[in-house]
Structures are given as C-alpha cells and as structure tokens.
Amino acid sequence: MKKIYYSLALLGLVFASCHPMNNTYKDLDGNPAPGKLTYTLQPADYKLIPIAKDSLGNVLQGLTDTSEANKDIPGILNIKFPGYANKSTASITYAIRPLKVKLADSVYADVKYELTNDDYYLLPGNKYLDFSVAQLISWLPYKFPDASNYTLKVITWIPYPATLTPPPPNSFLYANGAWMQIYMLTNAQYAAVARGTYNQFASADDSNIPAYINTLLKADLSVSAIAKKGDIKYVSYNYYNSSSKITSQRVLALTYNGTDWVIGSVVASNTSTFVKSAGSWMPDPTVYYTLSLADGVAISNDQSLSAAATSDLRTALAKYGDFESGWTTADVSLGIINDVLKVHFTSPKIGVNYKVTYLAYSGGKDVATILTFVNNGTNWSLVTN
Predict the structure, then answer these.
(1) Which of helix, strand or coil describes residue 303?
(2) For 78-96, what is the mean pLDDT?
C-alpha cells in the first residue's frame, strides 16, 4: 500500500507542477498528515551529493556552511525520505568541515589602515569620531565595498569605549560575504613565546607557529573558557620572510579538538530545518535579518514611535546601535516594521516568517534578541506566539 500511495503522490506532483509554487508556509498543503523528522546525516549520505574530495579521492564528510547545506541536503532527503507528506518538517544535523582556502598572506603595508576623521562619517548617521567594534564592522563595507573573499585588514581607530580590549589595531577578515573581527596576536603574546624582540614570527619558526599559537590560545581565558570541540579560530599574526625580506600579515585557521587548537579536520556540526512542499524537500523559507547601525539611525529618527522612545533613548540607539531598557517592544517592533522591513523587503514573501535580530542593552552588555514578523500581503505584524 505504501508503494501504491507513493506512486499516486508522484502522479499528483506532475499535475501540481503545472502551477507556480508560492514558497510560503501557508501554501505548504498537507494531505495526508505531516510528520516531523529528526536525523543526523551519516557518512554514506554525503556520497549522494556532489561534494569535495581530498587528494586521494576520498569524500570529505561534511558541508562547509549553511548555504551549502540548503543547496545539497534537500536532495538527500528526497532520496532517503520521499514518503513524508507535504508540510512535514525535518531537523537535520550535519557535519561542518573546515574550509580549505588560501587565507590572507599580504604585505603588512598593504593591509594596515588607520581611520582619518573623514572616515568616521562614511557610516550613515554617525556623528562621532570613535567607533565600537560593531560600528567598525558596519563601516568596513562602506570603506572597502569591493573586498574579495578572505580580504584581511588591520585597522587602527579611536575606540569606544576607550578601554576596549584588546585595543586597536585589530584584524578584520572578509569571508563569505561579511566582515568579522578575528583573533590577532598582541605584543605581549609574542613576548610570551620569546618572539618579543620584533613582535613577529619568522621563517625559522614555520614548523612551530601552530604550536605557539595553540599555547597562546589556551592561555587566553577569553578563548579557553568557552572553547568547544570543533570551534574554528582565525588567528592573525605578523610574519617576516628571511629570504624575501618581506614582512606580511598572515592568518592561520585552527580547530579545537577538545584539548588543543590544531591544523586538521576536526569536525563540528550544525542543524538546519527543512520543509516538504509540493512533493519535494526544501530549506525552511524563514528569512533572517540583523539590524545594522544604519537601521538603528533610521529607527531613532522615526517620529511615529510613541513618547516612550525619548530623545535620550533615540540618541543612544543612533550612536551605539543597541536598544536600552527604556525601549518598549511595541516601539521596537514598529520601528523595525517602518524603517527596516518596509525599506529592505519591498516585495516580501507572503506568510513567511521574518526573524529580525537586534541588540538589547541589558546588564551592562548587548544581548542579541529576536523578533518574528510576517506579511499577509498588505501589512506586517509581529508574531507573538
């Protein structure tokens, strides 16, 4: 009976394919009853999709990131779990393999940059001659709009707060479409491994550099206290090539194996959600968005917000990009709808969840907070359940 039903389901798919599919939650028709699948990909599963191989031709058992998972996992599910009904959901855990890429090895003079006064005003809405790390990350795309993958910059700027640790310069890496701050060795750390004379490693250190950095990462409580097996750390360090007489800034990717930071293929894992629609598995259509500093500036200028959004709260939001405790959920939601969703998503997917992350300042630190919104074809609304 199961085989007969599946054949009929395929026949139904042929007729259904004549109509355009609206990729939304409400159009995920479910007959018979949908199910919930929880599954961890096994080694043999990775052979069902085109995937990278090592120099010996062995399949590398893992995916590099969420976008690759969204592209390849539906094919696995369609092969292994074809009998699930439309509107079914699948929570799939998969291995993340470290990226095998050529990381930055640039002449130091080429990657270092110190902000001028004019640079601070490149960030929309900024009125101050200092930046937090979050503001600097928001600023980088304006200064370097054509950055290629794995571009490295060592940036010096006036920090906010002035006691920022570690103080500038800091290293920032452009990877997979976004800038991120990466770990950068300090002069004190070079000294700790007897390389403090010039505050750099040299060609003679080549075989020992991974061990040196492992020692330094394990000694840094800000790293060791939260390290989890499979974590990947990009470490920026200064390097002198004794043959070419060139000083460069390099980046080494190390993975934590539960004891040490090593070069290797220690595998982490991630979990993504998929849904069954029109007879096929597809990635969960939820849209994710994180507020930028420019979004905060736009919300701070929104005059439709209530009197609860005082001038002090608005000023702090525009400067620091976070919402202090005086902000009500109603005003935050209205600001996101008016100044973010209506601006950035002018043709929204109807009935699809839009999860917006913003920073709420609480207990002396920023806390990432998520609100979910949906568009019914006419209006946006906050999802409260």
Answers:
(1) coil
(2) 92
